[in-house]
Amino acid sequence: MMKVEEIIAPVKIEMSEFEIRFRESMKSNVAMLDKISNYIVKRKGKQMRPLFIFLTSKMLGTVNDRTYLASTLVELLHTATLVHDDVVDDANERRGFFSLNALWKNKIAVLVGDYMLSKVLLLSIEKNNTRLLEVVARAVKEMSEGELLQIEKARKLDITEDIYFEVIRKKTASLISTCCEGAAISVDREDMSEKMREFGELVGMAFQIKDDIFDYGTPNDIGKPTGNDIREQKMTLPLIYAIQHSDKETKRELMSIVKNHHTNSREIKRAIEIVISAGGIAYAHQKMIEYKEKALRILDEIPNSDAKIALIGLVEYTTLRTK
User: CA 100 to CA 91: how far, in whole Å?
Assistant: First the structure.
């Protein structure tokens, strides 16, 4: 597996320039907003989404102002959704830091998220780039639909495998597909925009399945299971598979834990044992590999370059990572 530094190497200069431009895009005349923006910038994560944009753009053409705009729009949208998610989930932490709502309360956190979404609209219009806005707006719509679909189905705990895939396609994969499609558009490769959208979607599906596997732990590389998804009554692929492929008695026990005992640590541990022994983790891993391989086949026709090799490395990283 390529190291993160090796993946970033072909676009290291672009990523540094992006940080400057992103910080600039967050500026405001309101002192409180500037203070919060600085806090957000300091606690940024791996910035995988801008990385997808710059590597895809460089693989297909030449990074330019539209590419920086695309990465800024996506990162503003992604950050806004995280801020709003923390409010909805009543979460006090994000990536090891206090969440905005923990420090500044819900009302301010929601308004900051709204401010970021307004910046997405304004930047697009300022730069006269309605094509990129169209792609980003579609992601907002899909992410909202995916979240609502998950909530609707979670109430009855009747999520099938097909519905699960639809939820993660909308919730997670739509934003990575936006990165790759937006990247193609930014370097005037409309001929590749649809293929890159599909590529990003497949990578996003694999990425989310990997996240769902993490919750159960594995003997080799992930460490102790957390069981957070079961606590939150989230019907993820390992759990769905276990429910569908267990005998009646085990299925009833598993459903009972998720429905009635999802706050009991001993019961959660039992549920994890059932899911693992039913083959839920192995099945989810197999599906994740299928999505990853399908994504990589799309890149076969594109000429080799440092950016393409790093992009393949980034896809491998999303499925082989241990945290």
Answer: 9
